[in-house]
Design brief:
127 residues, 41% helix, five-stranded parallel β-sheet, 5 helices, alpha/beta
């Protein structure tokens, strides 16, 4: 059975690349182009994995992560922060907000899926 991934990303080019790479690697992909829609889809569809941009136009990604963790989305959901917001302490801040892992942008199309799978396996919830 395919894992379902919700991508919460407001940049069209990033959304296209992420969804292309994931679909090519046999994942079901849900797309949210803003934080509000991402929260709604996370609660409605309970995806296995959420790729969350931290810098969204409508909401703070850290707040979205906290909201997902405390509002009915299964604890087994893996949240991976994917962001160009790479200042000191940002990875720790994402983890404290409830993310299971952190990947920097720009993503490398050749290694992105394997990096993502390493985070999932490290959390021992990926089948």
């Amino acid at each position: 059975m395919k894992s379902t991934i919700l991508i919460i990303e407001d940049n069209d080019q990033n959304m296209y690349m992420l969804s292309y790479l994931l679909e090519k690697n046999n994942f079901n992909v849900l797309k949210a182009f803003n934080g509000q829609d991402g929260l709604r889809q996370a609660k409605e569809f309970h995806p296995d994995i959420i790729l969350l941009d931290i810098q969204l136009a409508d909401m703070d990604g850290y707040d979205i992560c906290k909201n997902i963790r405390h509002n009915g989305v299964p604890n087994s959901t893996i949240i991976i922060a994917v962001t160009s917001h790479a200042m000191g302490g940002d990875k720790e801040k994402a983890i404290q907000a409830g993310a299971n892992g952190y990947l920097d942008k720009p993503i490398n199309p050749d290694t992105f899926v394997s990096q993502m799978k390493k985070i999932i396996k490290a959390n021992k919830k990926y089948e």
